[in-house]
Amino acid sequence: MKKSKLTTVILVLIAFTTVHAQQRRMRKSRPPGQPSEIQVTPYKTTMIADGNDKALINIKIIDVDGKEVAGAKETVTFLIKGDAHILSINDDTNIPHTDSTWQATVTGEAHLILQTGHIRGRIHFDAKADSLITGSTEIHTVQPGTPHPVTTANYTPRKVTDKILGADISFLPQLESRGMKFSDNGTPGDPIVIMKAHGFNYIRLRIFNNPENPKGYSPGQGFCDLAHTMAMAKRVKAAGMKLLIDFHYSDYWADPQQQNEPASWVGEDFTGVKKSLYDYTVKVMTALKDQGTTPDMVQVGNEINHGMVWPDGEINNLDSLAQLIYSGVKGVKAVSPSTFIMLHIALGGQNAEARFFLDNMTERKVPFDVIGLSYYPKWHGTPEDLKNNMADLATHYKQQVMVAEYSQLKQEVNDIAFTAPGKKSIGSFIWEPISSWEGIFDRDGKSNAFMNVYPGIAQKYGVK
Q1: pLDDT (tens digit per residue) in 74-119
Q2: Can you give the three-state secondary structure of the chain, one letter per residue?
Q3: What Å distances lie between residue 244 and 67, 134, 201, 285, CA to CA?
Q4: What pLDDT, on a 0 to 100 scale, did the predictor assign at position 29?
Q5: What is the pLDDT of residues 5-21, one digit of tens each?
Q6: So which residues are the catalytic ones?
Q7: What is the spatial distance between Cα 452 and Cα 59, in angstroms, rounded to a whole number?
Q8: Cα distances (Å, whole numbers) of residue 209 to 141, 280, 459
Q9: Under a CB-based contact definition with an 8 Å cutoff, are residues 371 and 343 in contact?
Q10: Quick check: pTM over 0.90?
């Protein structure tokens, strides 16, 4: 290692240690029930740059456990970078402000209305108060244009006949590489088999193009690449479970804040990117099919409400985004026509934005079978917001609906995920329950009380 690189590593480690020490001190000085953070929940993160579009943003003062501190009174400063402004806070339009900064007193919770300007791009929104963790969100402002269909064919969405009680456990190989062992009531076992015994019937695996790259998801190790995914797929199918493959189409995490194209595609023109996406999809699907582990369902992109494979597929380029999704769909169907296609958006409680995205993909005749929603209360609203959104989507679109990611409120979320109108809801996938917050295994690999929630859900909703 060169001296300059070693110095950089040391400085990063010092900074990392310092930040975490500061966070620990803050947690000690802010016990449960005391204000700790400003939570920002936007009800649109894609808006029209027409000077008129409005979005509700909820502001809450929460404690270290994420609970609202109802009586907390804080002076909050709102900072906006981008072409937008605040119309009102709790219906008050007379708010002290400059061109980019507004200030108001918030007691527990506040409702803010944001209005766009005419410039398409991104709006960064921060809510700050002394000694509290800053809340923030990013909103993309777009001008949709005239839709151009990706195909002249009319597609009838296929119906998933099974109820799905699924989990994304893509971290498992990494945990096992560190020596982690799993058990259920004292009996050692494969966590996939243990989950199957508790009612789970589907596993989701995320896959990155070249995660071993220096700036990839797993530098030098390549976890969640094709080889690791193939090995995990064998375990899933051997346990008698079904398989969902989650294409990120990136070397790194893809979500609403980042959808960076794989390094090997950089510099290609749009035609080249579409071909690369198609070829990669075919490559992965063929490898899985050849070993007898054909995916039962595929996500063409991960949380793509702001687009995917940026910059070509950003949400402001709706025609290009639709073509990229269609390339992925064609790649899946070229290998396995029976595999279901999911479009996955991170909009559990944001109905207006979900409708915007799905309407635009429908107008462009993108073929797909399932609408998947992420739902995390901090960013996606209340359970009632999720329930209303799923009910509306199930009523408005031909596709089935499900919760493709969640973690908290396990019983409540599943009661919603299985009960949308018209028998259109097909279930859920919990995100990383073997390693994230509120996991169904403890840090030492032992199954816990959260695991025991699932047999009842499986029985209640007929999961087989």
Answers
A1: 999 999 999 999 999 999 999 999 989 999 999 999 999 999 999 9
A2: CCHHHHHHHHHHHHHHHHHHHHHHHHHHHCCCCCCCEEEEEECCCEEECCCCCEEEEEEEEECCCCCECCCCEEEEEEEEECCEEEEEECCECCCCECCCEEEEEEECEEEEEEEECCCCEEEEEEEECCCCECEEEEEEEECCCCCCCCCCCCCCCCCCCCCEEEEECCCHHHHHHCCCCCEECCEECCHHHHHHHCCCCEEEEEECCCCCCCCCCCCCCCCCCHHHHHHHHHHHHHCCCEEEEEECCCCCCCECCECECCHHHCCCCHHHHHHHHHHHHHHHHHHHHHCCCCCCEEEECCCCCCECCECCCECCCHHHHHHHHHHHHHHHHHHCCCCEEEEEECCCCCHHHHHHHHHHHHHCCCCCCEEEEECCHHHHCCHHHHHHHHHHHHHHCCCEEEEEECCCCHHHHHHHHCCCHHHCEEEEEEECCCCCCCCCECCCCEECCCHHHHHHHHHHCCCC
A3: 33, 36, 11, 11
A4: 57
A5: 333 332 333 333 333 33
A6: 303, 405
A7: 34
A8: 29, 8, 38
A9: yes
A10: yes
* Encoded amino acid at 202, one letter: Y
pLDDT tens digits, 428-444: 999 999 988 899 999 99
In a 10 Å sphere around its CB, with 0-12 CB exposed, 13-18 middle and 19+ buried, how is residue 439 labelled? middle
Question: Amino acid identity, residue 6?
Answer: L
- Looking up tokens 């220096």 gives 214
Percent share of the chain, pLDDT over 70: 94
Query: Which tokens is 440 given?
Result: 């169904």
